[in-house]
Amino acid sequence: MKISGYHKELGDNVVLRINYNDLYYYDMVYISKVFLDVDVPEDILSLPNVKYGGTGFFYDNADPLPDIIEHHMPDYDLYNDWVREKIENKIKYEEDKNNIILSKEKIKKIIQEFEYYLDYSIGFTTRGCFRKCEFCVNKRYNHVFLHSPLEEFYDASRKYICLLDDNILGYPKWKDIILELKSTNKYFQYKQGMDERIMTEEKAQLLNSCKYKGDYIFAFDNIEDKEIITEKMHLWKKYCTKTTKLYVFCGFDRNDRWDISFWEQDIIDIFERIKILMGCGCLPYIMRFNRYEDSPYRGIYILI
């Protein structure tokens, strides 16, 4: 969206492509990829008019966008035609399948599936993290730093704000950002989750005084953090009455053994973390590392 916004400001005609057909017609084609296991034809990447980037291609060595693009207002209209087609096709499919005319409520529910395209301002206020978790792509930096002011991606005509920050509570001036978000009088959310291990009374009070969209999300990735997680969740629950979810990461061997003893202990640790979170009045959200598919207990990971 930032690339599109930048080129439209230059007067260029920009379209969203959802396939690789006839790309040679364009002066410039941008391809991004988030996940490593998404296939992009090699002959496409070698075209002279193609630029490509993202963690899916380069993992943690991906180049950033040029500043003039990175700090440009996103083009929130880029996906409009794609979203409209998706909604129309889904309504038609449901009506044809059931031989009915969908009610306004059901149509509204279908439209809500695309709310991030339609209703949200989306961006990063901060980047970076100091945790350097073994399984995480975000290990380039050892601190959290200011990335962009809210005004760079905030569209006042949109109902909500979605923040993609890596570790907002680890930023020394986190309070300034939360107060600015609060001053918009819009509902907002941190989609990537927040680091409850550095939760304080002040942070808990301020976050729970805001218009927050959806569930608060944190993480409980390692059973060794059980004491601090329990302490911080009890602190958090003094102020929070909304649903609180914690990502429960599993299926990843930090010692790189991948033997039967690891898989058995990992299953035990999952259930212990679930028990701890339920004792704190929180919900576990199971996040499986893809190596779980190699486990002799694969079925248990699926069941959980």
Notes on the structure:
This protein has 304 residues and is an alpha/beta fold. It has three domains: 2-70, no CATH class; 80-110; 111-303, tm_1862 like domain (pyruvate-formate lyase- activating enzyme, Alpha-Beta Horseshoe), CATH 3.80.30. 35% of the residues lie in helices and 13% in strands. It is built from twelve helices and ten strands. It has helices spanning 2-9, 42-45, 55-58, 67-70, 80-98, 104-112, 115-118, 174-183, 201-207, 226-237, 260-279, 298-303, and strands at residues 29-32, 50-53, 120-123, 126-127, 145-146, 160-163, 187-190, 216-219, 244-250, 283-288. Strands 3-6-7 form a three-stranded parallel beta sheet. The two termini are 37 Å apart.
Give the end-to-end Cα distance, rounded to a whole number of Å.
37 Å
Order of helices and strands: HEHEHHHHHEEEEHEHEHEHEH
CATH topology of the largest domain, by name, is pyruvate-formate lyase- activating enzyme
User: DSSP strand (E) fraction?
Assistant: 5-15%
Give the helix/strand class.
alpha/beta
Question: How many separate structural domains?
Answer: 3
Tell me the strand order in the biggest sheet. 3-6-7
Major beta sheet summary: 3 strands, parallel
Task: Give the CA-based shape.
Answer: globular
Query: What Rg is obtained from the alpha carbons, in whole angstroms?
Result: 22 Å
Average pLDDT value?
96
Tell me the name of the CATH homologous superfamily of the largest domain.
Answer: tm_1862 like domain
Unreliable stretches (pLDDT < 50, length at least 5) are: none
Fraction in helix: 25-40%
